């Protein structure tokens, strides 16, 4: 049981830390950093029609190396995002996509985190809180600061370069107070078009205290109709099916796979989803090692097999699975529409009406029972 | 339920010229080969019975295309169901003799509106446990007079709960999701895909559906000439990547895409249980999202493709995009 003095001391520490975070995350730092770059706006988006869909678009998938930022956080973060965006824009990109957890390097705002987290983030949190705090609560504390740096960085970059940016995602406190994995989509004026919450979590995120989102956005943009669910959402065909049936032509997946790179396991995400839903896909992967957590993946631009020159479903793909790269290529919407005309999907709605969505609840019980039986 | 089931996949070569008797003899040899290797369940590819019909009734000129359903009906009306029943009885005899489950591929069966592409499951006692018709049809199948089934069954057996994914169904993830939600643990896929064989086309069908549902799969492919079409495919027995050598998701596979083959694999339910307990994909379903959109989001799609895309374009053009 904590004494009154201990409680007062803890409250003061938190207040002081919040003050430190507020000071470290001033938007002016980001704006000043990017102003110094004297960014020349791109004219690439001017080629997009004002209304109707474009024939093709040029997209960059940023394979970003996640590295803990230990000092000058706002400046260092803006510098990194600037460097990668510049590389993409110089190759004519109209849309720049960053990976899932692209804001996670800002967790370095916690002083001494690297030492604390030698045995993992979970362990660090337990060390500090005595086991009373969840990992999500640490991110909650950081959330206002991370949000300011993150939003200001990508909004300013989008406006300065005059390019669409999907920020990837980061862990933030949502409007309803719940902790979520949230992605941002900015237009070339730096306006926030929308946010997308991750809809299917990995078990670790659930254990850490994060919540899934409930809504899948499909956006009508000058780039075409776009959805951008996050990483694990691509494991579930349901995500892409809903997106496609609501009119999405391009589905973007910011991803961060924290596992060893194994080719066939990587084929269980966006690749089959693009094929079965007849959409164009973009995957931007996080790579590197952040406080002991390795991230691997090969970013790329995807489409139905029949549309790709190598007939393997990739228009272009990163050369490596663990190095920083910016993958740039074209997505041809005219070709996609022609392919859909020639190969229409033929759904059996009568069948689905019998089982969906009710079976999702009943089926889970059945599976749990089956798995239990096997254990015995 | 047993914890390790041995299953066999038959990759059948369909020949343009062969007597019906020789064909049945060949099927007998294939079953004997599989049972010699310990198979408790043997799966033949789609159209195995159709291959028999084309040999037994060359005069019917059974070709894939607009006249196919009519041709099947003609045989049915001339000979009754005897050809179909004889063929089934033949397999029932083999199942009894070897004490094994057999899926003799699919049969094209006349219905009021056309023909269904229907698989049969025969028990070791030589009885028909159940049937399953293909539920999704491609344009060529529709053009040949196929009609789709509108339900999916799961059959409980001592080997595990079995469900069928037939031909085109393998490319609609809804099918295997419904089957696995209904408790299927082994998915049987009798298929026939026109040449040229594409590994990636197969990956986007059965392979990835096995992965996203964490079950076993047996995909049996037809090769050779049938009904004016040449087929190719590499039959495969699947499990999740975590359970297979080299992380490939493949337990066993035919040696090539154009030749006859028989092979078996053991389905280890203890390993499957461990895989699911480590991470059950179903545990992270977003039910509120699915409830918001299923099934009504599908209802507007069956518009003819041209009208659908036209409408989407109109919607698109009517609004100022962001």
Q: What can you tell me about this protein's structure?
A:
The complex is a heterodimer of chains A (376) and B (322). Chain A has 376 residues and is of the alpha/beta class. Chain A is built from 13 helices and 14 strands. In chain A, strands 1, 2, 3, 4, 5, 6, 7, 8, 9, 10, 11, 12, 13 and 14 form a 14-stranded mixed beta sheet that branches. The longest helix of chain A has 27 residues, at 135-161. By secondary structure, chain B is an alpha/beta fold. In chain B, the strands form two sheets. In chain B, strands 1, 2, 3, 7, 8, 9, 10, 11, 12, 13 and 14 form an eleven-stranded mixed beta sheet that branches. A three-stranded antiparallel beta sheet of chain B has the order 4-5-6. Chain B has one domain: Nitrilase/N-carbamoyl-D-aminoacid amidohydrolase (4-Layer Sandwich). In chain B, helix 6 packs parallel to helix 7. Chain B is built from eleven helices and 14 strands. At the A-B interface, strand 7, helix 8, helix 9, helix 10 and helix 11 of A face helix 6, helix 7, helix 8, helix 9 and helix 10 of B.
